[in-house]
Structures are given as C-alpha cells and as structure tokens.
Amino acid sequence: MTWIRQKLAACGDRIACHEAGKAWSYAEFIELIDHAVTQVPSKGAAVIEVQGPTTIEGLAMILAIGETGHIALPIPAELPEAEQDKMRLIANSSQLYNQLEGSGLVLFSSGTSGEPKGMLHNLDALLSRYKNLSARKDRSLLLLLIDHIGGLDSAFRCLFSGSTLVVPETRNPEAAGLAIASYQVNILPASPTFLNLMLLSGTAQKHDLSTVEIIAYGAEAMPQKVLKRLAKVFPNAQLQQKFGTSETGAIRIKSIDNESLFFRIEDSDTQWKVVEEELWLKTPSRVLGYLNAANKGLEADGWYRTGDLVETDDHDNLRIVGRASAIINVGGQKVHPSEVEAILNEIEGIEAVSIYGMASPITGSTIACEIVVSGDEGSRTWKRTIRNHCRGKLAPWKIPSSVKIVDSISVNIRLKKQFARTEQEFLT
C-alpha cells in the first residue's frame, strides 16, 4: 500500500493527532507504523490483536498489519474482560480466513439489538476506498472507537486527507466540548444520541464551539426534533448525515438540506436498491462473511441486505426509518420504535425518548418508554400526557403502557441507544 506511505509522508511535520496531552506529527505517525511493523510476525498470516495505549498507536498498528498481510483484531479496552475474551475466542477459531487474499480486518457489530457478530473484511479493499481523497486541513473530533466502521472511517478520512484528529480525554459531552474549544475543531462526527446529550448538558453554553463548521451524524436514526435543535444551536454549521454499515464500510451520501433527514447516495462504487422497504447495498468492500453466525443478508451476487428500513420521496432520496430487527411484535401487530418516538418527541417538555418492548403475558410484548423530561411532573402525569397526545395519532397498541422517567437514555460503547432489555428488566 505504497499510496498510504506517500500520502502520510507528504504531510511531514503537520499535526496528525492531538491525544493524551501530546501532538503527534505525521512524521511521528510514520515512525509508529514502522515500529508496529517490527512487532508483527515476518511470515504467515496471523490474527493480531490491536489494543494500543492510544488511538493513534492503534491506527498505526492496523496500517502495519495491512502492510504485512496479517489480520487485525481491534478490541476496545472499554469492554468487560469476559466480552473481550469472547471476541478473541471467536476470532481465533474461524475457518473463514482461508477465503482471504491479502490483509484482513475483524470487526464486531455493535449488538444494539442482539449478540455482536464478528465479520471479516478484506483490509486492502476497505483502505483502497480512501486512496483518492483530496487534501484538506481540517480538525476532526474522534469520538467513535476504532474497532467500529464509523470510528475507522472518521480516522482514515481525516488522516488520508492530511487533516488533524482530536481525541478527547473521555467520551462524554463535557470532554468533547473542552476538546473542541481547546483545539478549534471544525468537524464533529457523532451519533444522534451523543449530540442530543451535548444539547441537554448545555455543552455549547459552557464552551466556545463556534469553530464547528460541519456536524456529521450517523450510526442510528436522527430524531427530527434533535436535528432542529442542532440547527438552532449551531446556526453556522452544515448538518451532514453519514451512512454506512459494518458489513460494507462507509457510503458517500449527501443530505438534502440542514433540516431534512432525506439524503441521496453519491458513491460511484456503490449500487443500491430498496426491496420491501429494506435498503440493499452492493460495494467492493463488502465483508467476506461472519465468523460466528450464518451469512444472513449476504447475497451470493454481492448484495447486502442492510436491515435498515427506509422510505423514499419522489426524487428517489432516502430516509432511514429504523432497524427491521428493532420492530416490536404486540399481539401480532408490528410496531417500529422510531414511529412512536417521533410522536412523543412532539410533546413539550420531553427532551429524549427510548422506546422498547416489555414482556406481556397476553400480547407477548407491550410498548414501554424511557423519557428524559424538563419539569417536576411524575411518571403518572407524563403517562396521562402521553396517552392524551397519542390518541388519534397512533393505534392503541402503539401507545406506551409503561412510562419511566430517567436522567439520561442508556447508550452502549458506540454511543448509540441500547435497545435490548434483559428478561429481568421485562419482569420488573
């Protein structure tokens, strides 16, 4: 991958990354890659765990693995040790590597609606999609971990264009705001859930975020209410929707405008179609297969059934409705959480919503919600308010029967809503 070395070397003493109180130049980043190359086996393809003390060192190891023809296995230190061990076991017991030509990358899905799935990428094919990036001098905040396609895309898109990564001390709104203000970050990629946490915590009032020019949101459906708030708090920033899957890599898209959730796919390497409301994609960087699951969704002709439900407008623009796997079955009736969330977000005083299924002995499941609210009203009052508001807007079985007021919506290490509930939670 000579082109990577050439791109990095052309940046010389320019800052590649601010992290852990240190500024790393591109020359120092190349030195990190050189050192990482000496740490991997010289012969034979091996699965090599990536868990560096810093993000920039982890990225250097991934690129070194790509150069030497090995298989990278990034594992986040934030995960419980038992989950890390499970990922190692899955990655080191697969026969799928026989299909790999060149270097590889093992990623695990976020597991927001089930057990995470390990998948094998051709790392060469994934990296080649960044070969023709134009040179830029941006400063981009890196919130997402580099064991996930969103974090890798943000990092590679930044570094291969000669820009600067800024890694906050911790991944919370306060640390993000401090990093943006300290390093004059102008690109803020984040999930809608994290962006809403920033709004609710008043991050823009505590720190000078005026340098932000682009807010790139993705990884989950964006509530219209949050999008409008972002446009108000960041009037000079472009709000750009991003899209991609762990199975295909990031896809180049363009939002219709700042307050629209519709976008169009503008990626010459990507084909797309909608089959029964589900988005299908075909890219040269699709995964080779799953390590611990059947290849469901991976069609023999190269298509990938994303599991994302979409709607289209008259111009073939797309809007993500939500995940097919998140649909709740209430007595045989299908309920999508995003539909209910959109209605509840209309209510004055509700700042954030999470809809999920709760076990019911009669209908199998019933609709429950967690809400973050302003004001002192209790759950009984809010339950009555929600019922009154939903009448005539939602079918009776879609109206939440359980309302819980929480300080914040639960998120996973990807900073996305954690929809899955345990059986014990269902019963309480």
Description:
- This protein has about 425 residues and is of the alpha/beta class.
- Among the domains are: about 1-140, 3-Layer(aba) Sandwich (Rossmann fold); about 325-425, GMP Synthetase, Chain A, domain 3 (2-Layer Sandwich).
- About 30% of the residues lie in helices and about 25% in strands.
- The protein has helices at about 1-10, 25-40, 55-70, 80-90, 125-130, 150-160, 175-185, 190-200, 205, 225-235, 335-345, 380-390, 425; strands at about 15-20, 20-25, 45-50, 70-75, 105-110, 120, 140, 165, 185-190, 215, 240, 245, 250, 255, 265, 270-275, 280, 290, 305-310, 320-325, 330, 335, 350-360, 365-375, 400-405.
- The strands form eight sheets. A five-stranded mixed β-sheet has the order 3-4-5-6-18, sandwiched between helices. It has a four-stranded mixed β-sheet with strand order 2-1-8-7, with helices on both faces. It has a four-stranded antiparallel β-sheet with strand order 16-17-19-20.
- Helix 2 crosses helix 3.
- The longest helix has 14 residues, at about 55-70.
- The model is unreliable at about 420-428 (pLDDT under 50).
Largest sheet: spatial strand order = 3-4-5-6-18
Query: What's the N-to-C terminus distance?
Result: 54 Å
Portion of residues within helices: 25-40%
Helix count equals 13
Q: What's the mean pLDDT score?
A: 89
Major sheet, described briefly? 5 strands, mixed
Instruction: Estimate the global geometry from the Cα principal axes.
Output: globular
- The count of DSSP E runs of length 2 or more, i.e. the number of strands, is 25
- The CATH topology of the domain at 1-138 corresponds to Rossmann fold
Rg calculated over all Cα atoms: 22 Å
Give the strand content: 25-35%
Which residue ranges are poorly predicted, with pLDDT under 50 across at least 5 consecutive positions?
420-428
The CATH architecture of the domain at 1-138: 3-Layer(aba) Sandwich
Structural class: alpha/beta
Q: Which CATH first-tier class of the domain at 1-138 would you pick?
A: Alpha Beta
